[in-house]
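Why run this: before we spend reagent on co-expression, it is cheaper to look at a predicted model of the complex and decide which construct boundaries make sense. The entries below are exactly what would go into the expression plan.
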Amino acid sequence: MMVPPDPPLAAPPSAANGSLALGLPPADAYTPANLPPESISRYSRQLLLPVFGPTRQIALSSSRALIIGCGGLGCPAALYLGAAGVGHLALADRPGDVVEVTNLHRQVGHTTDRVGVEKAESLAIAVRAINPLVNVTVVDGSAFAGGDRPGGATAEALVAAYDVVLDCTDNVAARYLINDACVLGGVPLVAGAAVGTDGQLTVYNWEASAVDVARPPTGSPATPVVGTLLPPRKSSRVCLRCVFPVPPPPSCVGSCDTAGVLGPVPGVIGVLQALEAIKVLATPAAVAAAPDDPAAPAPGVPLPPSGAAAAAGLTVLARRMLLFDGADGAFTTVTLRPARPDCAVCSPARTVTSTAGVDYAAWARGKPRAATAAPPVAVAAEGAAAAVPRSTDVDTASGAPAAPAGSCSVVPFQPSALPPHLPPAWRLPADAFAATYFTPAGAAATLLVDVRPAAQYQLCAVPGSVNVPVDGFAAAVPDLATRLIGGKDAGEGAAAIRRMVIVCRRGNQSRVAVAAARGAGVEAVDIIGGLAAWPGFPAY
Amino acid sequence: MTRVTVRFAGGLELLVGGRKRVDVHLPPAPSATAVGVGGGGAPPPPPAPAPAVVGDLIAHVRAEVITERHDAFATAADAGVRPGILVLINDVDWELEGTTAAALADGDVVSFISTLHGG
Ligand SMILES: [Zn+2]
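The model came back. Tokens follow.
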């Protein structure tokens, strides 16, 4: 027996006016109180996803995230977190850190016409343009960039106002400071890093479920963490100091500014930071379980929820580290150790109970007690070391050669690694020298030695200069000296005496080279501030 | 002789001429070759070779594989590696395996990964 077809329905009203005109309720009558109609439309594609859905969207939309660092990692992280509808997105960077042209190949939240604008402000504009439903604020990042401000809130007090922190910074001191602040403030930390073609990602201070860290079988029996008499901790909530108790020597730390970086590499890691943050934030508090570790953060600090996300199909990258090899196109995820029984900040045996008063910049340079360390006078005098440390300053202060990608030299932990202090008579201002160099007499009287790495010399160089990278400079001094007393390029009748002038990128390695030349009896001089101070030389 | 693959990442590959994977044939540990020098009577049974451990591998890699800036990998006096290097045995943190005392078997992959701080 045939069922007669239903009579055709009237077309549904498509606008509020239409529904009101028909006597129907407004659009928000159809949605949960905390998921307004515009959210249904905007987030529909993630709301349709079974492991996400409206419950997690509501949790995400009522949560607060803090992104520290608005560069290569922070830009993609903020764009994706904002687009996904985090409730409150706070953006922090160093005051005075503005968008530069050299940032734009990877820091995709900024634009050419915002060069010169503070990075956090510029990124806030970009996020608001994507999603006006997000409350985007700019916060002063001073507390995360080194020193305490007298009377200012500690870093742990600042992070405690958020449900997750994304570490998108670019230097060792800030990373340890932010780690400690998040442990002391009881906030999970999504830590990403990228240099060259490599990236790394993990989530600290978040309880890893048994599922998260299921170990592949190995032939060796598991052994407790060695080097301590303390009992193993039950917690799988590890922090940066659990994995890396001691910072690397400054000379072994590459930065994007000196080592270079392919833009999509921090892009990949920053996007994955947003993904991990969404998984952390979208864990509704109602289903979160408290961890069982008596060694967990300070009393009174609310603990982040534990492995609830994993139970419902979203597994946070806790106690695991993702390694991205962009050169090979390969991802690897490795299992990390459990919480360290003697961790300096997250164990019952902690020695760090506040970030206030800790000189993280000095500590990252291998000098735990700042009071006993000689201040880097020579560096400060050139204005390179501001109150706010940045990766280039750390490199500069260490005296590490401006070597190619991520490479290491062997001068760690030594204050003597600072570039030597030269008498003023051995140093020339860049602008005055450049003016004389570009005269026939000036060029003929000068042997200009550029001690930057070959890759940088090939990028751009002063005409007529010769490239002798600082690593091999001392060995090359005798050969260079022969050119000073009228070599074959001196020409008939030309002035026989040529002056050796040494230049580098910023005026640090040139001092090392001048000291080496003078040690070999050649009265070399260097250019203050290097090519960065040379008028008209391309900035890079 | 233990055959293991050594991975370098995070910039450490620059210490070995840019190679990210190096196959290493680890000689028997000294303790294995020192056994069995007793004389007279029936020859002693061949000693069971002591398994090579990760500490042996680090010393070998530092001496034989690293081509420059050796202290950026490990210092001679140090049993382990310099701070900031994550060591993995078959993609598992070596702290879970006994660090330098972890025994190695043919086919193991030991990774040395310098932690990154850029962004
Ligand atoms: Zn810890």
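Confidence is low (pLDDT under 50) at residues 32-38 of chain B. The helical segments of chain B are 30-34, 54-65. Bring this page to Monday's planning discussion.
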